[in-house]
């Protein structure tokens, strides 16, 4: 076939006889047997010592092909070793000259399965494969597939579309992996989306593959960053920001200075990475991060676009928000106002830079977003007053009560709080983290007091996957409250169900929570929830699947008529989970 012809065409150029030559010899000769013998001698193994072995092998019935094949394989291995050695020895120009000559000689046999590995090996060791040969490789699917990544990099760097085709499925896979973690059926306050350390996350398959594809090639690194920026703009999906930071830090781990030294975010990201590892921004690192932000020079403001994307990574936001809540608690103890704490102001500055990433990259106006004074003078003191309310209530509970009876927990929410959560993005983010904080402390009173403020928040942040993932995890700490009608009504009817019908993701998170805690919920409430959460025609597969799982579990719980009349058996207590030593 044409493939065969193509495969052996290269032999002619090298002056190696092929089947066609033998045919020609036999057609034009008088003594065919003599002609065959001569052809074998001319084109067989030329080494005298090996030639003597042939008749001996013939006696043993070993086909000549098998003999030639084993000699050939042996030679090929030697040649591959030699190529790798040439690539390391002598003067740079000389060794590359040798390899280029070898490529020139062998390239015409690139389609022969037996020779192809040699051609590929030579190209792999050439820092610059001649353009013409790269084009030929690129045009041939099978050759391109067989290429080493070192050769592919040379092809990719001048073919953004081709590189995009290779990277695109990896980016899709990455986003999918993140979403699978957020929607995982395992709900726990110990293990959540933010549990894995940065070092561990960088071992992920996608980050490792991208790191390998980029090698030390700055051009390819820039292309990947461009893809990530474009996708972040197109989708607003913040996981692309995580990948931006992970990729840089993965190259940092491998000490690829060729790239790290030219990425202006490198030192900032490195410092922030250490904070994310500790889930806290300490004073020393805060100074360092501030130094980077203050050091952005005139004419280099564009770096703010990159820094904002690094700060928009949910792992960075999580660290900054947790640190903010910790600072506010400290300030209550020190009797200090937020505006008097430079550390707190820096955290807010970085939060607003991160939250402003999309707008900055979209508008291409590179300047830090203005911080609203009200956030510092009104909203944060409001949060501090909630902390004080809790202290006061706890102390009141412990005092011997006079005839005035127990002091009720303050139930009203200041209107300003609700308004801030609706209108100010940073306030909303910090407010949500405060609610996660009180839930983790099992502070039911404070939780029920602030919950109504979550129904309407800035750009529906309270219904975002990351918040709901964390909230459902923390709610397992209040699992005993689910037996109470009032608590369930506030949580489900007052919050979750207000968005279920318009937001598929909320529907999924409620079902996840119930799959985990259904045995704690009062039976009457559970029944009405089962009705309210029934999927509609528009519901996606994930919702239907979760709903079916829940229905199956509830089916198993229903007692059969016979059991009801018997004496109720003691319910086995759920095994208690040992609390881990504080990390």
TrEMBL record:
Q: Which GO terms are recorded in the biological process aspect for this UniProt protein?
A: negative regulation of transcription elongation by RNA polymerase II
State the residue spans of region: Disordered: 557-583
Q: Which residues form a coiled coil?
A: none
Q: Where are the transmembrane segments?
A: none
Q: Which protein, by its recorded name, is this?
A: NELFB factor
Record's Gene Ontology CC terms? Answer: NELF complex
Q: Say which domain of life the source belongs to.
A: Eukaryota
Instruction: Give one Pfam hit by family name.
Output: COBRA1
């Amino acid at each position: 076939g044409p493939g065969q012809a193509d495969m052996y065409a290269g032999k002619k150029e090298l002056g190696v006889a092929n089947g066609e030559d033998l045919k020609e010899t036999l057609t034009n000769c008088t003594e065919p047997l003599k002609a065959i013998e001569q052809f074998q001698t001319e084109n067989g193994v030329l080494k005298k010592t090996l030639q003597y072995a042939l008749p001996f092998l013939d006696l043993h019935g070993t086909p000549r092909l098998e003999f030639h094949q084993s000699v050939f394989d042996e030679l090929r291995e030697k040649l591959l070793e030699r190529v790798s050695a040439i690539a390391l020895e002598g003067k740079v120009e000389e060794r590359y000259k040798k390899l280029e000559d070898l490529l020139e000689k062998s390239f015409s046999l690139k389609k022969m399965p037996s020779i192809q590995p040699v051609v590929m090996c030579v190209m792999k060791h050439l820092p610059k494969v001649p353009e013409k040969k790269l084009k030929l490789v690129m045009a041939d699917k099978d050759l391109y597939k067989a290429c080493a990544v070192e050769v592919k990099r040379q092809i990719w760097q001048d073919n953004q579309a081709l590189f995009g085709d290779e990277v695109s499925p990896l980016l899709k896979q990455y986003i999918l992996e993140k979403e699978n973690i957020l929607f995982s059926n395992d709900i726990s306050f110990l293990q959540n989306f933010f549990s894995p350390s940065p070092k561990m996350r960088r071992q992920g398959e996608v980050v490792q593959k991208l790191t390998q594809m980029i090698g030390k090639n700055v051009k390819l690194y820039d292309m990947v960053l461009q893809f990530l920026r474009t996708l972040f703009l197109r989708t607003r999906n913040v996981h692309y920001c995580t990948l931006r930071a992970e990729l840089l830090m993965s190259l940092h781990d491998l000490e690829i200075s060729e790239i790290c030294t030219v990425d202006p975010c490198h030192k900032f990201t490195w410092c922030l990475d250490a904070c994310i590892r500790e889930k806290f921004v300490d004073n020393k690192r805060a100074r360092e991060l501030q130094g980077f932000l203050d050091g952005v020079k005139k004419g280099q403001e564009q770096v703010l676009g990159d820094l904002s994307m690094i700060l928009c990574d949910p792992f960075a936001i999580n660290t900054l928000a947790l640190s903010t809540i910790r600072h506010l608690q400290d300030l209550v103890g020190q009797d200090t106002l937020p505006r008097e704490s430079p550390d707190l102001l820096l955290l807010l500055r970085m939060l607003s830079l991160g939250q402003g990433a999309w707008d900055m990259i979209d508008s291409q106006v590179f300047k830090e977003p203005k911080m609203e004074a009200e956030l510092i003078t009104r909203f944060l003191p409001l949060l501090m007053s909630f902390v004080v309310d809790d202290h006061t209530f706890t102390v009141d509970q412990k005092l011997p009560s006079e005839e005035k009876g127990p002091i009720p927990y303050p139930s009203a929410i200041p209107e300003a709080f609700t308004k801030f959560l609706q209108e100010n993005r940073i306030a909303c983010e910090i407010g949500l983290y405060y609610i996660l904080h009180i839930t983790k402390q099992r502070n039911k009173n404070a939780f029920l007091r602030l919950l109504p403020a979550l129904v309407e928040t800035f750009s529906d942040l309270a219904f975002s996957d990351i918040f709901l993932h964390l909230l459902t995890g923390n709610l397992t700490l209040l699992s005993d409250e689910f037996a109470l009608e009032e608590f369930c009504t506030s949580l489900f009817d007052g919050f979750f169900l207000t968005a279920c019908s318009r937001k598929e993701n909320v529907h999924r998170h409620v079902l996840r929570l119930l799959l985990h805690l259904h045995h704690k919920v009062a039976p009457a409430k559970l029944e009405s929830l089962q009705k309210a959460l029934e999927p509609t025609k528009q519901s996606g597969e994930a919702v239907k699947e979760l709903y079916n799982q829940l229905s199956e579990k509830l089916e198993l719980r229903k007692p059969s008529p016979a059991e009801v009349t018997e004496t109720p058996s003691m319910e086995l207590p759920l095994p208690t989970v040992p609390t881990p030593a504080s990390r």
